[in-house]
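Troubleshooting log. The previous structure file for this entry was overwritten by mistake, so regenerating from the original sequence record. Sequence copied from the archived sheet and checked twice against the printout by T.R.
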Amino acid sequence: YVQGPTLKRFEGELAAYAGAKYTVGVGNGTDALWLTFMALGLGQGDELITHANTFFATAEAMWIAGCTAVLVDCDPLTKCIDPEAVRKAITKRTKAIVPVHLYGQCAPMREIRQIADEYGLFVVEDNAQAIDAHGDDFKIGELSDAVCTSFIIQKNLGTFGDGGAIWTNHQYINDKVRKLRNHGSIKRDVHSFGFNSRLDDLHAGILSAKLKHIQEWSDRRIEIAARYTAGLKDCDFLDLPVVRPGYRHVFHLYEVETKNPADRNKMLDYLVKNDIDAKTHYSIAIHQQEGFPWGKEARIAGPLTHAEKSAASCISLPMYPELTEDEIDYVIETIRAWKG
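Regenerated output below.
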């Protein structure tokens, strides 16, 4: 049940699916990030760049590894990391870029890879939300040192609880993470410094069964998103998701934004009162969280205007493959009837 044959089989299946040489199952997506940072030798004094409108865990993992989180702004259209903001944030202490494939759409990895090559930086992809996505001419993992993903139950590929994984083409990252996840041990009773962060075989078995369906589930999410977009495109009080040309956006979330941030909470209350399970992801940017930066090292690099606006105006509409046509139509009709 722990580091058994089912986990080994799933790691092989995920590696084949991702087109990677190595895959390591770990306890959760946050652990996947900080274990990868540690495997890369990143720690105190090292700056890692990400954007401010992602989930807290992206920065949290940097702090757990002892690094400095550097926050930059997002692209105002896609909400993914802005490459030009990354370039401007680089200092002599910068060691890695951590782009997040937010809401199910790949970050602009060609631009990120180019910047990383210019400055000799690592690239670690936070892929907690975008399994089965790809860019216009690249796949996830092709342009980075490692990819970290989450299998918590609400993800596009989720287990019945929590879980995570790392995939990479670098043997040294694979070998180091395998040791770190298991008390620094590969062989029984031979230990070094490490942790306890293993993907259980029961979860691996569930993920193995579900991985076979991920493409069809992603296709259904894309169909639902297209229905939403067609039905809401003339709602002048909303900004709808923007998909980069040629990208496969798998819509972990279908996130809209009220053009007037003051309308967000009113619209959210309206939808909930009409039995629509709308939510906010992520309504408080990382640098605006209470007590930031929690006594840890952090740096805000440039204005975070777009990240702050997105946080203040975002609403996530219901999005999962099992939505019926009638339910989708009801969401659309209810939003169109909103009077503000």
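The first helix runs from residue 5 to 18. Archived copy saved in two places this time.
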